[in-house]
Design brief:
The protein is an alpha+beta fold. The protein is 28% helix and 35% strand. α4 packs across α5.
Amino acid sequence: MKSDFEQAADPIALFGEWLTAAEASEINDPTAMALATVDGDGLPDVRMVLLKGFDAAGFVFFTNFESAKGRELLANPKAAVVFHWKSLRKQVRVRGPVSEVSAEEADAYFQSRARGSRIGAWASQQSRPLESRFALEKAVAAYTARYAIGEIPRPSYWSGFRIAPQEMEFWSDGAFRLHDRLKFVRDGAGWQTSRLYP
């Protein structure tokens, strides 16, 4: 039975290979990941977000810090994410502590977004009750007029988080549910690996 992990030693490099394959085969959003956090009552919370960068330091995404996920991560800076690529029949799980990205990183990414998305960051009070769709459209119109000319600054409450991987697990579909699973656990500057039963 052939394994997808014969020479795997670096989980970040392996993730990069799998993401590249997903970018060629997934119909929509190969960078989509389910982000799990914990709220103030200790209940888990999960939603989809988009990966915007990764390297040995971690996996980066951006959000409104006043949103539910923003508040939860600021209060309890630990998270888990899972990437599931149906076209590849593969998934990757990542767990670890979370930190804020630098203001410079947040500024650079914010300015790279479409103008409408930057306006939306100002107009949306993310995760809070919305009285009507018209109220949102009115806010979008107001900020569009406010920033009709020139650059749109990044709101102070909009930034990014980096998940520093302490554990990564790679899963590849196998015949008769005999899946291939390889787990990496951070060990100082390196990684310990172990195979898991399906």
